[in-house]
Amino acid sequence: MAYMPLDKKKFYLDKTKMTKIYDLSMPWGVDTPLWPFPGPRQDLQFPRGQYLGRFHKRTMTYTGTLHAGTHMDAPNHVLHEEEVDRDRYGYSLNEIPLEHCVGTGVVLDMRHLAVEFNQKWDAAGGDPAKFGNIWVELKPSYFEKAAENDGLEIKQNDWVVVNTGFHHFWRINNDKYYNYYPGLGPEAAKWLIHEKHIKGITGTWGATDGPLWHYPLKEQMPWLDVAYRAALKKDPGENFPDYEPCHRLFMQHGVCTIENAGGDIDEVTGRRLIIAAFPFRCEMADGGFVRLVAWEKGAF
Questions:
Q1: pLDDT tens across 153-180, in order?
Q2: What would you report as the CA-atom Rg of the chain, rounded to the nearest whole angstrom?
Q3: Is 162 helix (H, G, I), strand (E, B) or coil?
């Protein structure tokens, strides 16, 4: 029959006897914040093909970017095939080695950066001409200090998860979230790759590269170019002369990159855990949604 009455007396699964899984993902739906490209862009659409009132089942379709919410980038998002060792690290999303998608990792506490940013923002009244240098590029010293503060160590083949505190701006102030988050530059990326030998990187940021690493900024993010020039009286291209170098560096070396972490991250910050995020097996996809999760080592 189409209707099935609910009988809770027959429930047998006991959640209290299951391993606690922390969800470090952000939700995505019709109001999911999207990277602020210049010009109009199609929004996320979720039309129903079937619905319970008539068919006794619901069937949704999805139209929109694969780079929404918490998602993993694939090498073909930013690299030509000749720039990638496809046999070793994969190229499209379905080819990313699953061994790279799960492992031990550390959740580093950099939430003070969101507090310090808000203090500067409020003092300036949101006026870029009064900001000064409100943007933070994460250097190796930031990672070392955060790890030391909580007695952690970034080890070979680790996942590194960075909590900047900026996930609290998600859907609350998307201008702050996408244009001012503390982000990575090539110095930190090369250090994480060549010295720490990590296999995964994610954080509570709008993109793997810091917002200013989108050269030429006046074309890619013209509103941000205006804000930077007003704040520092400089051409951002002088200090940020490349477009998403961290994306390319990480993915060329097989490091999984996930953008827009958040969710339960505050509950596990400052800890070593198992981190996992498996991409769906979609041929040709240059990125896609993941459920970024963490659990205590030895919990299973």
A1: 999 999 999 999 999 999 999 999 999 9
A2: 21
A3: strand
**Cα within 13 Å of Cα(240), Cβ side:** 27
Look up the CATH superfamily of 22-33+40-295: Putative cyclase (3.50.30.50)
Helices (H), the chain: 52-55, 86-89, 112-124, 140-149, 174-179, 186-194, 217-220, 222-232, 236-239, 245-252, 265-268
Using the Cα atoms of residue 265, residue 114, residue 171 and residue 225 in order, give the sign of their dihedral. negative
Domain edges within the chain: 22-33+40-295
Residue 160: its pLDDT value, please? 98
Pairing type for strands 71-73 and 183-184 reads unpaired
Structure token pair of residue 172:
């609350």
C-alpha closest to that of 112 among 200, 186, 204, 240: 204
Strands 71-73 and 48-50: unpaired
Q: Which two tokens stand for residue 167?
A: 């996930």
